[in-house]
Structure formats: C-alpha cells, structure tokens
Fold these 4 entries.
Entry 1:
Amino acid sequence: MTNMFRKAAFAAASAGALMLAANAASAQANLTGETSSPGNSPHLMMIHLADVAAREGVADIQVQEGQTATNSIVNVAEGKSDMVTAPTILYFLLEAGRGPFSAIGEDGAALAANVQAIAPYNAGAYGLITPVSSGIQSYQDLAGKTVWNGPPRGAALTVGRQTITFGSGGFKDGEDYKGYQTNWGELPSVLVDGSADAVMVPITSPSDRVVTMLSTGDVNIISVPKDIFEGEAMQRFFSAPGNAPVVIPGENLGYGEDQGVNLISEDNVFRSPGVPFATMVRAGLDFDTVKALTATYIASLDELKQRAPYGGTVNFDVLDQKTTGFCGGLTLKYHPGAVAAWEEAGYDVPDCAKPE
C-alpha cells in the first residue's frame, strides 16, 4: 500500500470510526477486559482501547489489570469475560489441550472455537536482564542463581524457561538454576528488591522493565548467542505456532550511551525469541460492536503509538502473516467484525486468518 493510499485509508477509517461511534452512542456496550500489569504493549493496547472506546461512545470496558493470560483466555472462551490480551501461543495450546491446559484436554478445541482476534501486535522479545552488580554476563553465568522466569503458570513461564534452556545450552529450572515465579503485579518489586539475580521477561525497545531495574544501578541485557540463535534447534522453535525471532541492532534498543544499559552480544545485536500477541474477544460478541470497536482502534493508531516510547516498534498496525505468526499451525481467526473494520481501513487481512 502506498503512503498516499495509507493516509487516505487512515482518514477514511477515522471518519468511519467516528460515525460508528456516533451511531452507537445511544447504545454503548458494556464490556469486560483482562490484561497484564503495566509496562508492556498488551497492557498499553487494552488501556488505550478502553480509553478511546469510551471517549467515542462505542463501549465502556472494565479492565482487570495484572491478570495471567492463561486464566484470562479461558475466561473469554467460557464467556466470563469479553476480551483479553494474550500471546497467540496460548490459543494454540488451549486448542490442543496441552501445556498449561493439559487438564482441559480434548475440551480445549471447543473452548478455543469461542475465541477470535481483533488486533495483532507483539510484546517485544524475551530478554535476560540483570543488574551489573550481579556479575551475570552470560546465560552460562545463571548456574546456581535465582532467576525470575515468569508467573506461576502460563505461556510466559514456558517460553521463559525454553529461552534459558536454549541460551545456556541446556540449563533446567530447579536443576541448574532456581526458577522464581510471581504474578505479573509483583514483577516491578522483583526488578528492584534483589529477590532475583536475573529476570527473564518480555521487553520492548526501550522497556519500562529495564528502566525500573535501572533505578538500582546499571543493567545488562544479554542476547542469546548468535550460533545458538541461528542453530537448527532454535530455528525449529521459531517455526512453531506462537513463536517469532527478534533481531535488533544495539543502537535501536532505545537507550542512550550514558544511561547505564549494556547490551552483551558478540556483535552488538540483540537476539531472542519474540512474543506475538493479539487482543482476542468472545466469538459470540456481536458483529457491529466488534466492528465499531476495531474501527475506533484503527482510527486512533497514531495516538496509540505516541503513548509509550516503544509504541512505534511493536507492530500495532501490521497484519502481515509472517510478522504476526497467524496461519500455519495457528488456527486463530479474526472476528468477522474486525475483518470488516481492517479491510474498510485499507489493510490486507490474510485469507488464512479470516473465519470460514
């Protein structure tokens, strides 16, 4: 799409969203949403969506923060909540009844069918961050250390453990290092209170989580070694549903030379698994509400990108199949109302991600 066409499409989307909002003002929807703790793109997206939806008279979204996405996606699937910000891998695992949903088993497929997406983005990349004072400068240095690697259960913990295993050449939680888990709401304290020697957590470029840790002293961001990152095992990992590689030159991480953030990498390039996310809704949510909600979101994308320093780097407006991780082994589809809103705004929704 050319820049001129994109600008025209955006203007049309803005006008369309306002018109939809005006029509819905007399019958504003009351919705519930669940998201993570502050400091990342999923939380930013949900709070922004709630703000603009209320402002334009489309919906009043009661947002529960600090939630574990593993529980939240089930709540949406069971109709207990209307929307959730969640990594796309959770949809795959729920549908298959695997991982954190193993107790659900075969019933997971029926539950997953009740969930559809309205907007994709990412939560940055899994980053191993550590105070310089800890002395940790590599994945191998995690031996015998305490590492915060996620909430007590869920996709973040699974991928956090996997990333440490890959980066270290085989370290296991509870054997080679002591894994430490808390809920998302306690993470800000963990970043500064010394309860963990290192933290494996999704970070953006720049990241509020790195800045929080900086309050205690200089911080190391440790890249997955290049040979491991480009090796066969990790490339197979990236081809699985819900995974994507992230490669960022050090100068693009978003920190100044004198800010006390040190990238540890053999070639000044940060490499780590990415975190494809989507905001998902109940499949049964009516077409007009979802279309109006999505259209209002699209019309406010420029505003959203300005709400955080990393706002322009997490692909809030990218629907590309490879970038978002949709299709292939991931059967997650967009809600019909979302498809209509994106296409009317001039975006291409991959056919494989449209509902049948």
Entry 2:
Amino acid sequence: MAKKTIQDVDVKGKKVLMRVDFNVPLDDAQNVTDDRRIRMALPSINSVLQRGGSLILMSHLGRPKDAPDPKYSMKPAADKLAELMGKEVLFATDVVGDDARQKAAGLGPGEVLVLENLRFHPGEKKGDATFAKTLADMADVYCNDAFGTCHRADASMVAVPKAMGSKPKVVGFLVAKEIQYLSDVITSPERPFVAILGGAKVSDKIPVIKNLLGICDKVLIGGAMAYTFSLAQGGKVGDSLVEKDKVELAKELLAAGGSKLAMPVDTHCADAFKADANKQVVETGKVPDGWQGLDIGPKTAKQFADAVRGAKTVVWNGPMGVFEMPPFDEGTKAVAKAIADSKATSIIGGGDSAAAIQQLGFADKVSHVSTGGGASLSMLEGEKFEAVEILDDK
C-alpha cells in the first residue's frame, strides 16, 4: 500500500475529519435497515479514538437536491453508530453552518461528531473550494475511508484534502484494503485469473471487459447482458432483455476476446417475468418467441463453476440471472458457491454481487467483498482515482 494510512499518523489531541460512506438504506420510519457500511468504518474510527484523537465524520446519504431534506438526514446513521459503539455520538444539524463549526471546535479527545448530509450543501457536488476550505479548517488531519465514492470528484473527496494544505491526508483501513485487493491483486494476479461478469447491461461493463481481456486468462459472461452477445452471434433471444444499440460493440468484443471470452451454452427461460411462469431450459441462441431468458442454464452453471475451481484469482461482478426470484437464482448460487469453496483469492465487486454473496451466507468465505459497486467497476477498468492519488505517500 503506497499511501499512508490513519495508523501512520499521530492523532493524539488532534481532530480528524474522516470521509466515511454512511450511505445506508432507511425504511419509512427512518430506521437503518442495513448497517454494514457503518460497521465497515469502525476499525478506522476506533483507531483514532483509542489513540486519543477526536473525530468529525462526514458522508452523503441518498440523492437530495442540494438542499436539506429530512428523509435524507444523517441522524439515523449517527444514532446507529452510537448504538454500535455503545457511546454518545454528537450530531450537527448542518454541514458547515454555526452548529457544525461550534460542535467541531468543542470536540475533546475520544469524542465523535457526525455532520449533516454533505449533499444538503450545493458545494459538495460542485467540488466548491470555499465549502471545502470551511470543512478542512475544522480539523488537523483528513482521512478518506469512503471507497464507494472514491471515483467521484465531490468536494469532500478531492477539494477538501487539497484545502488541507500541509496537514496529513491519509486513507482509512477500508480504502487501504479495497485498493490492496482491487488494484494490487489485479496488477499482479496469481494465475489462472478468471473474471465473471453479469448484470443487465453490456454498456455498464464495456471498459471492464476490455481491460480484463488484457489481464485475465478467462472472462465468463452471464446475466442479461449475455443476450446482447447472443444476438451479436446471430442467436434468437425471444423477449429477453437486450441492448440492440450495443450489438455491434458486442461483436467487436467477441472478436477481440476470442477463446478468452466464454458465453453461456444454455439458458433458463420463462414465458413471463414471474416465479410461477412456465419454464424451460434451452440452448443459448434458441430462446423461443414470447419467452425470456432469466438465468444461465445448468450446463453453463457447471462450466462456470469448473472454471472457478481451477482458478487462483477470481473477480466476480454482477449476478448470473434474476437472483432475487427463485428459481432464477440457481446460476448465481452455483457461481457463488464455487467461489466460496475455492482456494483462490476471490474479490466480489460490490453492488448486486455483494448483496448476493451476503444473502447466500458466503461473505466470510471469500477474500474480499467490495463496498463500492461503481468504484470497484472503475478500478477494474484500470482507472486511477484523484481522491486517492492526492493523499500522502508513505
């Protein structure tokens, strides 16, 4: 890890401004329904508090329109953090207003303050330098522990560390771990290196497929995007989800990938998008009119599982079918189980794949589950993040 981490900084008696990813789901009663992202930040938070520092935590939540909106308040996340830590967590009712500045100024060692939603201020999305300086002036140290937003140029990610000047600017343990897996493992993977890509859209994965074809020994394609490839090969896809405007691009990727790019050999399809529809398994490219492919078939699931079993490094991003609706979760289950059972270094790339691996109970049987869907995709594309590049080197 080339960047300094929060552990490398003496935080005793200092205020640490930490960008966390507390963008957690809330129910209608404003209760946090999944606290995983808050729990993932605890090692960095505890490191500061145990060494005599104080913490100002900042995050966004949801997509408010650059103005306060009670349904996107950070207060429920602050309350959940207090519950998880078993200690008081202060809350500022604004981001850079009087309440935030006064509470930040009065923080003592071991105390924690959560600022209101960054996106309640128009300066966050605009990357505004004045807004960033007000935040930077609250603290002695900046720490980025929000991997899920590392691919963004929001003020809290880029302008704030720039505004810190010569003050320490470091990564938290979560970001350090994400970079170690997603960057280091992909730069020098143990081989064979297998990538499994699924999900709905080819367009979301084009740069990833292109980048991984240059690195991997095998790239396995599943999910709805496989039907766009099937169409590109002259197959029949019935009513399956396809991106007709991406068929030419799919042809190019097939030509470039050659034998490295593996497509499904069979498809589990239905005559309606529901669990109790009529179902049948057909060869890929032979989906009847009025039917739609909703999962990879059993032969494909076995082939993909065999490829995983022979791998030393596995990256998985995107489900193989409609994993929320049995029996069209079978392909995703088969791949997840093969990854969990394998001895390979395994990286699950956020989003739906992370949800699936959690849901199936395999999260503790893989090497790393990424906390950032978009950010992990950007890293798999080989992108560099300014939000990380500008932090202090070791």
Entry 3:
Amino acid sequence: MKILLVGAGGVGGAFTAIAARRDFFEAIVIADYDEAKAQHAAGALDERFTAAKIDASSAEAVTALCREHGITHVMNAVDPVFNMPIFDGAFAAGADYLDMAMSLSKPHPEAPYEKVGVMLGDEQFAVAEEWEAAGRLALVGMGVEPGLSDVFARYAADHLFSEIDELGTRDGANLVVTDDDGNEIFAPSFSMWTTIEECLNPPVIWEKERGWFTTPPFSEPEVFDFPEGIGPVECVNVEHEEVLLMPRWVDCKRATFKYGLGDEFITILKVLHTLGLDSTEKVRVKGVEVSPRDVVAAVLPDPATVGPRMKGKTCAGLWVTGKGKDGEKRSTYLYHVVDNETVMADYGHQCVVWQTAINPVVALELIATGVWSGAGVLGPEAFDAVPFLDLLTAYGSPWGQQELAPQG
C-alpha cells in the first residue's frame, strides 16, 4: 500500500504520527500546498515518509502526483472544500480514496430550514456506480464523527439492538485552552473553517416516515451527560455526515447529530454570521481579494498548536435507543474518550485532531490486510464493525459502552 496524504495540518500531522508506529504500508507521501510543512512532517519520521507540494484544488495535480509515486490510496486530510478535486483526481489515477468529511452541501434556495438542498456527500454518491464499475473504493466519512460514530451504528445494529428508534451522535468535551498567563481563551480545537460550515448550515435530521429535512441552526437543545468525568454538556443540532450516512446502511427510525458547543461558541458563531464573516465569497479589501471565513480562520490560533495549552477530555459517541436483542427497551451510549495530556505526552498532538486521525489509520490497516474490502462510494457502516473496534483497542485507544435508563 502506497498512500498519498493530502494535508499536513493538525489532522494530517497526527495521522502520520500514528501511522509511523504501524507496518501495514510501504510508503506515505505527505503533500501540502505549503511544501515546507510537508517536509517538516516527513523529516520527523522514518524513511517510508516523503514530502511533496500539491494544489488540492486541482484534480489534475492529484492525479499526476499519484502516478508519479505509484499511489494506491489517497487520504484526504484537508478542508472539505477540496473534496471533489481530490476525489476525482484519485479516481482518474486508479487509486482508492478515503476522507473524513464529505462533499459540501448547499441549502435549499427557498426553504433552507425545512427542506434539504444539495446534501453532504451528494456529489460523491452521484458517481458511486462509476467507482463500483471500476472496482475502486471511496470510503467516505472515515474520521471520528463521521467515522467511528458510524462504526458504532453498525455494531449496535448487529450486536446490541433488534430494533433501533434513534441513532443519535453526541459529541462533547470539557477542554480548556489558556494563554501564557493561565487565562482561558477562545481557541477552537478543530478547523474553524469546517466548524463554521457545519454549525451555521441548516442541520439535517432523518426520519423513516419523512426522509431528510432541516431545522434552524442550534435547534432542539438538550443536556447530555458525557462519561469519564466530562459531565453534562448542552448539545444542539448541527449539520453532519452521520445523518446522511447511517440510514443508507442501518435500519432505524431517526438519525440525528448534536454537538456540545457551549453558549460562548454559539454566540460567536451567530455574530460571525450576522456580520457576514462566515462567507466564503471573496471581497476586495485594500486591493486584495480575501474570503471573510479564511480571514477568521487565519487570525485564530492554529488548532495544531494549541495542544500544550489545552487540558481536558473530548468524547465522541453514539446514543442508540430502541429494543435490545431480548426485545426489551434499551438505551446505550457507545463512546470514545481521549485525554489531551495523555496523547500530547505520547504523540505530541492534541486530542481532537488525534482522535480524528486514528480512525482512518485503523481503516487503512483493515483495507491493507483485506479484512475490509469493497467497491463504490461506501460509508463506514458498510463494513463489519468488530474488526475495527478490536484494532482500535489494539492501537491503545479503547472504546466504551454505557447503559442508560430507557426512555418512555
């Protein structure tokens, strides 16, 4: 297996640090628009890693780099605005493809908070038959959320539940970032560009009797009590791939995604939207054309650098309700908790990007060993969950299961 990793940012850097401890691949080419960043990442690792420059907005550039290095698998670790050029470039090169976030959505032009427009992943699913006919695999949404949460959905359906009412992804944390004087500061632990995209777009919900529909941002607030000391966090509806992926492969009555943002973060996002600073359309400022969202992302701390000043834990998980295999009501939370200080000490990468990056590494190892195989555009739910969860644990990062009081 020869892997082209597109993106040497926070997640890309964590991906290489995790992969360097495994032996399932022959080579990884770390490619970034900033070649110095790619060279720095490769230089800290062994001889299997090399660096290259790439323009991720050009499918032709992706194809050319794949052919130059004999790439078999393209791993997309950049903002999803670049998904389609990387996706198309991998296909043209005859390579398989993985990403952690799917092609972007476009709100419904007349009723954005009621009806779906172009949904996450629609552009990729539109060519699924071409990928399948070519015998190529595009494993989409293979991060932590989406990704591990979708693996949990498959596991719950196969091993825990006879009937599923709701697959509810719930994400929360108690992370705190401080300045040099120890004062808490606002510093997102993940890509601000992506966070703005998913939090300000109309959230999508799926119901068996209704299909996919949307609501206003930050709708249906609820307090969810997260495990391992994180505690209660208010979560709200956010647009996310799980809702678009899970119902395609797992039988359920409802699918949702709720994110524990907190009042401060929600207020900041609302202000950005009010001022138009969430826009990706370029504006001219003193003779220079810039995207307001790019500016916001640029002035905030780089998520890859906040690890040393961050404390706490992050939790990704899936809350499943319905009937257990015994026919009785059941409510189960399947989760994965990562402590920032632990992974900073072990890997030198902060917990949010590390938790995202470990899952595609596990998936690639399963593909390399033939445990997972397939063709077409597939989500993590399309594969057996047990080998994934076993290997995740073998990597030294076990998952958890918590039984909750059944509802109703």
Entry 4:
Amino acid sequence: MTNTLPPNNATHIVVKSNYLIEASYRLSLQEQRLILLMVSRIKPEDKGFHIYRIAVKDFNRIVGIKNEASYQRTKELTKKLLERSLQITKDNSILQITWLSSAEYFEGKGYVELSFDPKLKPYLLQLKEFFTKYRLQNVIRLKSSYSIKLYELLKQYENIGRREFTLEQLRHTLGLKDREYPLYANFKQKILSRVLNELNEFTDLSFSMRERKDVRKVVGIVFVISKKRQQQAVVETDCLDNKETLSEKLHEYYCLSPAQARDIIERYDEERIRANLTYVEEKQKQGIIKNIGAYTLKAIEEDYRIQKSRFELDKEQNRQASVEREDKKRLSQERERDYGIFRRNMLETFRKGLSETKFKRIETEVRQEVAEKHGDDNPMQEKLVEIALNHKLAKLAAIPSFEVWSKSGKNVGAPTA
C-alpha cells in the first residue's frame, strides 16, 4: 500500500522507540528531515510499513534542493540514504541496519517512493512503552542534524527535567568520529553552543547545560530541560492547520464542496467530524454508499458515528489508568536512576576534596560505629561499612535526600570539602 506524503506537515506527529533515539548513526540534515517526514506519516494502528510516495517538488522543498539539477540531486540523495546505517543496542543484542530497504525514482512521473527496512518495525510501529512523541514542527526548522538528534535525546527526559551524559557517551550518540572536534573547547563552540541556541529558538522546550568536571577536565554534560511558557500561540496555529487539513480531506476524499466543508467545520467539533468520517469509510468499504458526499453530510449532521457502550468506555478508562500507572512507575524508576547518578557524582567530588588524613578519620569513626552496632565478626561487615560511610559523607556534603531532590526540581551544585 502506498502512502502519499502531502506537503503540509506542520502538525504531524513523530513517534519513535527510545532504543531508536539512543541508536548511534550519522545523517545529514536533509536525510534527517526526510526520515522524520516518513515517520510522521505512520499511524498508531499501522501494523506494517507503507511505501511512502513523495512528489519530487515536495521532496526538494523538504531537503532544500533549489538548483536546476534538482531531479538528479534527488536520485543522488536517495541513493546515499540507502547506504546510511545505524546501530541499535539492547540488553542482549546489537542490531546493525540501514534505514531504507528501497528507494524508487519514477522517471517522468515526478515522484519517488521510499520504504523503511522491515527490521525497524519494533522501533516505529505499535509502540506501547518506552517511546518518545513530539510534533514534527518542533524540529523541521532546525538547521543542523546534531540539533535534531539532541532534541530527541533530551525530549525523552522532558518530565524529569534533566539529563546527564559523559562526554564520551554524548559524542558517540551524536555520531561523531574520534578525529572530529577532539578538543572539548572546539566541540563546545562548534556543536553544543550552536545546537542549544537553535533548540531554544525553534523548539517547544528550553535547554541549558552544566559541565561536569574531574579536577579541571570536562568529563560530562548535564542538560537542564524545561517547557516554554509561550505554548498558546502554537496550539492555536496547530488548530488552524488541523482545520485546513480537515477541510481538504472533506473536499478531496468525501466529495463535499469547499463551502460545505467550511460550513461543517464551523458547526461541529473536530472529534465528531473525524469519528463520523471513520464511520463513513467503513460503510464505503462495505459498498453500501451511492453518493458519498450526501451520505457524509447526513452522517455528520445526524451523528451516525458508532456509539460506545458503557462496557467499552470502562475498558478504555481501565486501559488508560493502566498506561498512566506504568508511565508513573517508569518515571519513578528514571528519577531514582538519575538521583543515583547525581548522588554518586556528588560523593565522588566531595571525597576528592578531602585530605587523606581527614578521610581516614571519618572511615575509622564509621568502622567503630558499625562494630558497636553489628559486632566485629559480622560477615557483612565491609558492606555495612561502605553503606554507612557513604551515608556519613552524604550528610557532611549536605547532599539532599531523594525526596528533597525530587521536589526541588533544581540541580544542586557540587559541594566543597
């Protein structure tokens, strides 16, 4: 089945498995835009990939090809994209794969057809957990492939409000080779600073970064993530785009006149219209509609949509509650993991600031306390000492508890000894 990609893509949704977002790959900006456009056309109910058809003029507009040799450039770009690979790492496997299984250019017809590699199905179709979702419009104006990649990496942690990478992890995930910007100062100037400026200007989130240092060397980056307040204008724009798209659909697929389409959109809410269009589609498949335009008008006006029973509504509510519980559990686990990283880093920084004499004195005190409480011959002696010592150091360093850290929503700086 072929899915034609329309030029209006501002309100399309991109949904990707977090495994795919964390994958290591290198794409140009044009290639990133093209892949994202294809992903945004996947529907939640799709069980398999379509063949995605793109008009060459729309293709060129998306990837920014403007010269007279645009048709040749289209073929060159799709050929190169076929060679692009990515590596997806899971607990028990490493999958090396290309993005596309085929790209077919139709001479004289003005369009190209692209298809995803079938092995990407678990990472793009029927996603129920561990996925990230965002509007295509949040990245379509970005001018760097690094910006798109970092946006996705940080969007995953939007609800947590922060994400930390070692410098090595960040470079690997962005697809940088060892010889590219080996000095941190160059990496920061050429990549990080420019990317953050772009993300703050064009996306729905605000970002800042804090450097994690080992003595004087930068070894990691902490990104702080927050939602922008100016969301109302975006929502209103989306509504306008939705109405325009719905109006086109009523006219082109359901044979309403432009005036009838506008009248329907003004009189009824979008949920009612779309639910009734689904109902009409089912009847059309059954072959019982003679005049689809007249039938569609009557279906919307008299609200033919299939009404759900109380059993179905209760089932949906229970399913939604289950999803929310799982999301809450996942978020809690992610926060606990991030707090563990935060606490270990703070303890390590504090420990390095102590003199060896002072540290030994603290350790001796802890060993005495553990011996008095649990005895000298306890088989768990060393483990108990380790736990008690970390607790003592955390108290001396004034490291906040998990509860305090979670509620503050702030990143506490490293303590001084």
